[in-house]
Design brief:
Blueprint (H helix, E strand, L loop, with lengths): L4 H9 L1 H30 L3 H30 L9 H23 L4 H39 L13
Amino acid sequence: MLYTPEQKQRRDASAWTLVQGVLAPVQFLVFLVSLFLVVRCLATGAGESAALTSVVVKTLVLYTIMVTGCIWEKVVFDQYLFAPAFFWEDVFSMLVLALHTAYLYAWWTGALTSMQQLWLAVAAYASYCINATQFILKLRAARLQAEAYSRARQPGAELASGTTA
């Protein structure tokens, strides 16, 4: 079970659920624009400054969704990270954050060339895609759990013991 009834109630009542619901597609849109700019720059050499800056913007949006996600997790599961229901998503999120943070460091210090920075961004973006898939699958599981719970509460529904409600 992904959520206990109490956790589901806290999730549904929390403003942080709406914040996450808004930030996730915003982050994905920023990712798509940045990915286009990065790939175009790697393929043609055009728009280097825009591509490099777009990764910074994507990283700042990532930090925002991660901080608000930790708050959401605290509200719903009473811990900021690594709640059992989202443990592996949080573990992989640490890799995503590490790669994006490494990019910021390289961008800020010039520790890598522009092209190396863009390839680091590609690695960060690949990890982001895996992590986003993890969360999408978790959202689907939550939806399926809610549907099953709703069906089980309908009058006449069969209970696991074979009796009716």
